[in-house]
Amino acid sequence: MVDTMALLLPFIRSGRMTPTAAHPAGPDSDAPHVPDDEVLLDAPDSRLAPVLVAVARGDHAPAAGLLGATRAAAEWERRDRYVLRLAAFAHSRPDWLDAWRTADPHDPHGLVVEAQLAVDRAWRSPARTEALREVSPLITRAARSDDGDPVPWRIALDHARGARAGHRYFEELWEAAVRRAPHHYGCHVAALRYLAASGQDAHRACFDFADRAAQDAPADSFVQALPLRAAFAFLIGPRGPRASRVERERLDAAADRAIALSARLGPPDPWPAPIRNLLIHVLARLDRPGDALEQLRMNGPYATSFPWERQSDDPLGRFLQVREELRVAVSGRR
Prior knowledge:
Layout: H1 5-8, E1 40-41, H2 48-56, H3 61-72, H4 76-92, H5 95-103, H6 108-123, H7 128-134, H8 136-145, H9 151-162, H10 167-180, H11 185-196, H12 202-216, H13 226-235, H14 245-264, H15 273-285, H16 289-299, E2 302-303, H17 305-308, H18 315-333
Parallel strand pairs: 1-2
Helix pairs in contact: 2-3, 3-4, 4-6, 6-7, 6-8, 6-9, 8-9, 9-10, 9-11, 11-12, 11-13, 12-13, 13-14, 13-15, 14-15, 15-16, 16-18
């Protein structure tokens, strides 16, 4: 793994990670029943929801205002998620974004949404590698339009993975990203996904990188869930059902760390729902239905497409199916 070690350097420490204590579910941890027809898929938070309504009407001003507010407050995680959601909306309804770009072609907020949309479209192209290379200048413009924003660098990291960029180039992008936001979750996920595609023994490299990043990050940072992403990648791979004892320990430690993060993220809300949905999936795969049911209680009515779309073309249906299976499993064990 010599070629990927540079990605790990910012997080190499002398001490070992101390696993977070598990939180076993007790007899009173049954999730309150949310009827199937009240479960929401990919619900926007209270800040994004009115913006999506506005852009559906062709008004881009609230989107510019929202992204401007996240930039002013350095809310990089929210900015990243809002950019992804706005670009996804523009994929099928681009008129409002086209009007925005025409009205203010130098606006850094419009540029970053446009760059995200271009990368999303290129990823869907049959000629993905060539299509991604063609959008490189747009990503560069977005990055130069706001030197302190890490989101264009996260886009660049995703772009580099799809364009099959070499390790040295990816490492340069990574260093630029972490200079701007050392604990930005989106950039870390992009680096983890690059490592996962790096070849032999990738799972070990992913766990090492994720564990060290989480150890270095604040307790309430989404980076605490990075080992959970590594666990998910392992579990859906060919070795997932045949984990060794050491691998199983790492998988459980990743889940326990994410459980501790979930407890810090507050009551049911769309904002922590992606972390909790992934945690429910991993706990179910680890045959920890009691812990998974407790996360369902904390998650409330919020389902997210990821990770359920990896198992089914109907992510909401798959979420509901797993929810019912967990309730049955816990009831049977009692």
